[in-house]
Amino acid sequence: MKKSTGIIIASVAVICAAAAGFAIYSHSLNAKMEQLINVDTVYHGISVNGIDVGGLSGDDAYALLEKELNGGFDSMYINVVKDEESWKYTYSDFDGKYDLREAVDEAYDYGREGSTKERYKLVKKLETEPLNVECGFSYSKVKVNDAMLAINKEVSKEAVNSELSRENGRFVITDDQEGYEMDVPKTSAMVCTAIESMESKDVELCGEVIEPEITREENEKSTSLIGTYYTTYSSGNAGRNENLRVGCLNIDGTVVKPGETFSMNEGLGPQTYENGYRNAAVIVNGKIEDGLAGGVCQVTSTLYNAVIRAELEVVQRSNHSLTVAYVPLGLDAAVAGDYKDFKFKNDTDYPVYIEAYTTGSKVVCNVYGYEVHSSGRKVEFESVKVGTIPKPDEIVTEDPELPEGTREVTYTGKEGLKIDTYKKVFENGSLVSRSYFSSSTYRATADEVTVGTGKAASSTESGQPELPSSINSGNTEESGGSIFG
Questions:
Q1: For the chain, which has fewer Cβ within 10 Å, the N-terminal or C-terminal residue?
Q2: Which range has the worst mean pLDDT, 238-247, 279-288, 320-329, 410-419?
Q3: pTM given for the model
Q4: At a CB cut-off of 8 Å and minimum separation 6, what does 324 contact?
Q5: Is 129 exposed, middle or buried (0-12, 13-18, 19+ CB in 10 A)?
Q6: Which residues pair with 407 in a beta bridge?
Q7: 90, 52, 61: which is closest to 73 by C-alpha?
Q8: 197 near 161, Cβ under 8 Å?
Q9: Inter-residue contact 342 to 327 (CB < 8 Å)
């Protein structure tokens, strides 16, 4: 019995000793774990973008990374290249930088959540499995685009056409210049790709050369006189003659590019007093009236005849409502408001130059361009009357101020005409073709008379009533009437 009791007492003593030993061990282990994890620095075994930051405080880790990672962006560059020119930018110019704060926080926060044991395991794991925190990189795409826009201002330029003019009867031709158009979006995208590669690189500027529409070579081939015509006028109408001069001045020197259509209304400009036009006779609704810019139709008709002799394509042409005297029937061209215009197209491969001026008593229009026809070719235009239009019934106006039985012709009307125009082509003096070219219809106008409806004057009244003189308004174009309508 005593022996058993001894054994029990000995066993209890052993257990108590073991328990005491384990308690001492556990306390020592906890102290060791606490010592490992409870530090105010980044745990050893942690790096950011390959740079060891273990053992550093958050601020010290940030300072180290700022120096090692962001410090190099002042020397890293993107070089934008165009031919012999280049524009060099550092990564810092585009605010290129690593986003360090988030990476440092992530490195510092590793292993700081959970129980002591859980945290200890994470920290111990770093001894065999180090942790590398990847740091994000950013830059300003806005600054990239702004930089490319600045380059664009330097390199992009419009092409310069060769200019053709005449001075003192001779042509003056200037040089042409190529232009350049930079592709800003495409170049910006390529610069962004280069930045994101995290390497210093050359980037070829994107763009294209812009060729001039008219070259010096083309203008040099456009100096042949391919069509010419003149009309005459009297010197007795100062307003109309000024309109002829101003009209010629406004279209003189016009260059019509290949494929382009010339509009006489646009060439003449707004027909206003401010633009130099003056009052002169015009046709309105078949009658002669005083109006602004009378005479410009003579300039138009003169140019029309030069153009058809140059054998350029006529796009739009209207004859006058009444016949005119300064060109043959069927070869006139009228302009009026925005509903009558003369237009022709330069259907050649070279520029066409218009020369127009007044000299003495002539309106002269010359058309210069590239002569595609043989030197022996000549064209003429033949007017053929194909019909007449009778005058409408006379227009009678009663005047009670005139004695009954009085009849005065106040306007002499005109018979209308239908004219066909034919184009005749000669080669070395021989007629080779005669073909229909155009039709023109000139309206008929009625006679206008005034008849008296008043009673005969009493014999006791002194004197005789004064009668108006007869007015015969014929074709006033010979004396300066401009035609509208």
A1: N
A2: 279-288
A3: 0.70
A4: 297, 298, 301, 332, 475, 477, 481, 483
A5: exposed
A6: 451
A7: 90
A8: no
A9: no
386's tokens = 């194909």
Per-residue pLDDT band for 144 (boundaries 50, 70, 90) equals: very high
- Count of Cβ atoms closer than 10 Å to residue 391 Cβ: 16
Q: Which of 188-202, 247-261, 274-288, 319-333 has the lowest mean pLDDT?
A: 274-288
| Structure token digits, residue 239 | 């307003």
C-beta separation of 230 from 203 below 8 A: no
Chain segment 435-472, per-residue pLDDT in tens: 999 999 999 999 999 999 988 655 444 443 333 333 23
- In angstroms, the CA 415 to CA 444 distance is 5
With left for phi above 0 and alpha for psi between -120 and 50, is residue 169 left, alpha or beta?
A: left
Q: What angle do CA 62, 64, 70 make, to 5 degrees?
A: 85
Distances (CA, A) of 156 to 149, 184, 323: 10, 10, 55
The per-residue pLDDT for 20 is 45
* Interatomic CA distance for residues 138 and 298, integer angstroms: 72
Amino acid at position 329, single letter: L
Distance CA 420, CA 108 (A): 100
